[in-house]
Write a structure and sequence with these properties.
The termini are far apart. The longest helix is centred in the N-terminal third of the chain and has 27 residues, at 2-28. It is built from four helices and two strands; from the N terminus they run αααββα. The chain has helices at 2-28, 40-47, 51-59, 76-85; strands spanning 66-68, 71-73. It has a two-stranded antiparallel sheet. The protein is mainly α. It is 54% helix and 6% strand.
Length: 100
């Protein structure tokens, strides 16, 4: 009976340790997301594009960005702009296509 209690206690301690690590990780990321500057690689992951696409668009001034020193970065507002600017509404005069 004592070994079952020890096993349960060990399992409970492991769970508590994992919870502490998770909570500390969340606490470290509590900064204002609007003030976070994302790298081209992070932006590419969020947009579903390649890092090369993001970098080339920044170099061509096709998408908004800022620079921290010489490094290009994008804020959450910049990423939202890219998502909104890419939206295309259907032309009201286009013919409807049958569903496949």
């Amino acid at each position: 009976m004592i070994s079952m209690q020890e096993g349960a206690m060990t399992g409970l301690l492991g769970l508590v340790e994992r919870l502490v690590v998770a909570i500390e990780g969340l606490a470290a990321n509590q900064g204002d997301p609007e003030l976070r500057a994302f790298t081209p690689a992070e932006v590419a992951e969020r947009l579903g594009k390649t890092e090369n696409w993001v970098t080339e668009a920044i170099q061509a001034d096709q998408i908004p960005h800022t620079r921290i020193g010489k490094s290009p970065r994008m804020t959450a507002a910049h990423i939202r702009w890219v998502l909104q600017d890419g939206e295309r509404l259907p032309n009201k005069y286009s013919k409807l296509r049958p569903a496949a």
